[in-house]
């Protein structure tokens, strides 16, 4: 689930970066996506 959230945030960031929309919010989304990915890999896969 965290991986999907990170992917969605990264895609939104790319769309905003290409369209120059959002300014600082775009970079905040990228930071959140990276943090979610790091948390996902540290936590490992669960069988839920």
Which properties best describe this structure?
membrane; 48 residues
Description:
This protein is mainly α. The chain has one domain. The chain contains two helices and no strands. It has helices spanning 2-19, 24-43. Helix 1 runs antiparallel to helix 2. The radius of gyration is 12 Å and the shape is elongated. The termini are close together.
Helix content: over 70%
Radius of gyration: 12 Å
Please count the beta strands (DSSP E, at least 2 residues each). 0
Order of helices and strands: HH
How much of the residues is beta strand, in percent? Answer: under 5%
**Major sheet description:** none
Transmembrane segments: 26-42
Keywords: Membrane, Transmembrane, Transmembrane helix
Protein name: Fatty acid desaturase
InterPro entries: Lmo0937-like (IPR043727)
What is the topology?
Blueprint: H1 2-19, H2 24-43
Quickly describe the structure.
The protein is an all-alpha fold. It has helices at 2-19, 24-43. Helix 1 packs antiparallel against helix 2.
């Amino acid at each position: 689930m965290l991986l999907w959230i990170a992917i969605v945030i990264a895609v939104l960031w790319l769309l905003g970066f290409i369209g120059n929309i959002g300014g600082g919010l775009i970079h905040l989304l990228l930071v959140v996506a990276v943090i979610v990915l790091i948390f996902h890999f540290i936590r490992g896969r669960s069988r839920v």
